[in-house]
Amino acid sequence: MYQDHFALTQLPFRLTPDTALFYALPPHLEAIQMTLAALSMGEGFIQISGEVGTGKTLVCRMLVRQLPSQYELAYLPTPAMSGRELRAALAKELGLYPQDDQLLLTESLHRVLIEHKRAGRTVVVLLDEAQALPDDALEALRLLGNLETEQEKLLHIVLLGQPELDVRLSAPQLRQFRQRITFRAVLRPLDLAETVSYIDHRLTQAGGADGLMPLARQKDIWHASGGIPRLINLLCHKALIVACSAGHAVIQKADVRAAITDTQAARQPRWQFPVLWGWS
Fold first, then answer.
1. What H or E segment, with its residue span, contains residue 189?
2. 132-179 residue pLDDT tens
3. C-alpha pair distances (Å), 92 with each of 89, 96, 136
4. Exposed (0-12), middle (13-18) or buried (19+): which is 138, by Cβ within 10 Å?
5. Is there a contact between 232 and 190 (Cβ–Cβ < 8 Å)?
6. Residues near 82 by beta carbon (within 8 Å), at least 6 away in sequence
7. Of 104, 103, 75, 108, nearest to 91 (Cα)?
């Protein structure tokens, strides 16, 4: 692989979110800081949304790492198929044995949340892929969000999802849920300067030589990716493979062209270039 060819200490552009390579770019930093601030103010529902590939899962993992010690985390990475499944998953995260009787299960959850609060800890639920939740699961979340003492919420819920979540929440039957979300953050695509900083950071962290990917090539990648971090990673990864195969010491224009042409999701330029591997 190109790791040896370019004397890299690790692969800099893995598609799997890697917190070790996290770079505090404005969209991600704003979402993390907004969420932490909202939690400190005792808000019940918080939403982070973004298009596919903008870094929601990475932000989620960074939140897991940065949550202050007074919070008890319940992480639900896979959307529940029903309100019953959601309550059961939350109960399991909190160390409860799921019960078939939903009233008893809700009472048990309430009791455990109060116990955590008395111990000086507040439960935070991080729920990924929230746009896939059915209406009855969202209603179950809303009812769980109602659990509170006279002064504060017993449960804080952070929803991470694609823009389709906003479309779903605009439905009349979900207006009560929508009104409960007091803070929202949107993960926008990166601009050119942010993309250059992102690529340079990843290459530097991996031990890449100065000038390995010239600024002009980074501009090509930014334009083709639309600033979507996952596409940036994919294009950089493919360009490094092409350059390695061609024996180049520095990423050439032809290397980036091949990577772009071979990626269906990338914005294609006017020029055409042969597809090398049939990747998509």
1. none
2. 999 999 998 998 888 887 778 889 999 999 999 988 888 898 888 999
3. 5, 5, 19
4. buried
5. yes
6. 134, 136, 137
7. 108
